[in-house]
Write a structure and sequence with these properties.
Number of helices of chain B: 10
Distance between the termini of chain A: 45 Å
Structural class of chain A: mainly alpha
Strand content of chain A: under 5%
Oligomer: heterodimer
Strand order of the largest sheet of chain B: 5-6-7-3-8-9
Helix content of chain B: 25-40%
CATH superfamily of the largest domain in chain B: P-loop containing nucleotide triphosphate hydrolases
Order of helices and strands of chain A: HHHHHHHHHHHHHHHHHHHHHHHHH
Number of strands of chain A: 0
Largest interface: A-B, 37 and 49 residues
Chain lengths: 536, 312
Amino acid sequence: MTELAGTGRLIRLALRRDRVLLPLWILFPCVVPLAFISAFTSGFPTAAARQEYAETSLHNVAFTVAYGPLNGSSLGQLVTWRAGFIPVMIALFSLLTVIRHTRTEEEAGRRELIGATAVSRHAGLTAALILTCGASLVLGLVSALLLVNAGLGAAGSLAYGAGLATTGCVFAATGAVVAQLTTGAGSARGIGIAVIGTAFLLRGIGVVSEKSGGGLGWLSWLSPLGWAHQFRPFSGERWWVLALAGCGVAALTALAVALSARRDLGNGLFQARPGPAGGAPGLRSPLALAWRLHRGSLASRIAGFAVVGFGLGGIAKSIGELMDNSSPAAREVLARLGGQGTVVDQYLQGMMTMFGVAAAAYAIQAALQLRAEENGGRAEPLLATPVDRLRWAGGHFVFALLGPAAGLAVFGTAIGLAHGLNTGDVGRELPRALGAALVQVPAVWVFAGLALALFGLLPRLAAGAFAVLLVSLLFGWVGGELKLSQWVIDLSVFAHVPLLPGGELTVLPLIVLTAMAAALTLAGLLGLRRRDLPVG
Amino acid sequence: MTVTSYTHGQDGAISVAGLVKAFGSTRALDGLDLVVRTGEVHGFLGPNGAGKSTTLRILLGLMRADAGTARLLGGDPWSDATALHRRLAYVPGDVTLWPNLTGGEVIDLLGRLRGGLDQRRRADLLDRFDLDPRKKGRAYSKGNRQKVALVAALASDVELLILDEPTSGLDPLMEEVFRQAVRDEQRRGDRTVLLSSHILAEVEALCDRLTIIRDGRTVETGTLADLRHLTRTTIRAELAHSPNGLADLPGVHNLRTGDGSVRFDVDGAALDAALRHLTQAGVRSLVSQPPTLEELFLRHYERDETDRQVAR
């Protein structure tokens, strides 16, 4: 077994390093469906009430895109459908975990340290895959057991758990492949997230097309994110999807190992080329340096927002067809909701909030580049030149403010353009969608400000900004169903953003959010001016 | 032996007194003193974790001291940081570069931020250090990353160079290039260099004066000759007669007499008296061995070790 020598020890090392993150991560997706079970049993106690909820939800395409197809109105179907965003989060976590334990280690030079000991060439990759796939299997099993324990059918629960576990494994293997491509972990993450975005889009288009009788239903089979739903928990389980997912994992793992075997330590499939021997004339300020460091991720985000926006905008009109095909009862429901226009707007509102959250995650990441610069020792030589701390921080923070704003503007334009081209009224749809995207900006800035405030005042907890975003997302996501008190829902920053297009544009919350963002930014800058750097 | 007669005149490039800095419960600096005169190359020595880098970070205004005073080029390192940084260049102990910028880009960026770079000197240094400026940051080895930072610092027109173990990753050939570059600076007369180092030969070859610190405190400071004076010299001599009263002389240690020869260690202060005794006995040959910097160093390092053992 020299092929895998040392793998066991590396798994133990990885478990030691992730001893806090991993249990939390396994626990979180397991508990969310339980919250939905209690929400549905108390909020919609009768079969009739659930039937009505299902009918209403079926016509909200935002829900269908975000959570996948809803196959019926039984408790099991409703709960597993409503938890349909969990596979996306599992995909993201699996991918990032594998990259973190492989390419990040290699880039930091720690793989060299490990590689010089008695471990085999593929031990690191194998250990990362076993760790992540193992965690996914545990996650799927625990989720299934908890559902059975809550009184749902065993077969459906197992199918649901199998969907989660296979999603985790497939994207772990995807992470293993992309980690071989680039020399930097950052670009590997970018490629991996683009893969997840594509899978999300394919699933969305496929599912919506299937519902509206279009011919693109097969697209969701191309998306590994779609496979979780193809298990059809509580709707006549399809166990053979397990074989499909297994083949996917095996193929991707083989590809990753083959790529890994062909390259040298520190290299990727894409080789780094020599660059200029001197700095361009413009490279003379902290802002110019920040532009060099942020432009890659900015360009990929904007491209991603444009592509996904165009795709999501393209399916908005199919809601009209959905209504024509639907039963008189469904038409009644739609009329009660406010008619066809309102339903499209509702879908667009949902997408705007979702990508507002995505833009907020980007804002936090861009702001935390400051922390990465500090931790990596790259801030020190810069701050030993006549560059003021605030100018240095400002150079990066500009990208945390303007980058997500530009992304949202592109997203709104793309979604409005695609939808407008479909309806033949670009002049109406484009400004509406653009405006709806731009009202997210103040909420996004609150998170940029929060990240900067933590960086200035509590630098060791700076990554906690992501946790606040997650909690905010959670309250907005499950708050309605759980019938949480309004003040708890109000803690979610995005709950205060006007629901556009279609809703009322209220300016006051936008002003308050912008003021909050400004206050947080100011606090962060004041803290940064006073503290040690690097923090002791 | 601690020398405490510090001058706090305006002519000093750096003057630090009673500096204290704590990180949580550990006291990284515990009353550190350091005086660097304008135009000198000053060696800054101490075991790992003695507080060298922390001192440098305070001098650069990156960290704030809890107590004590620090003056740099006549200004306050914390509040005048930006203005002072125009006049100095710094090479960190652990040079990390931006992975997607080339070495040449980093050199130009840092140089321009300091207010300009001598292009002729930049080209000359790249040549002497044999550095390829077209490589990306992530592709350089430790030594080459250090060279990038050194070229950026040495090609800048500044009054003060602060170098934190700048040669720890360089090969002997490059180490010699570095020494030559520092001697060039020295020859100009107006440039001050604060050189933190572990390489004693380098300190011995380059530094006019040096400061040794331990556990965040200054334990020795002065010229190499001063420091040698404070320690024992080993004397071996062949004598015509056997010496009288040498053993009773204060400051003479480990006296061994043999067949017409003596060998002993003597404190710097007692050297004169000891030699008088020897000449009275008729010196046939004499070998005097000054303490090496290693011995000076080890004395402090070993004491450090025994202190630690006592503490346990």
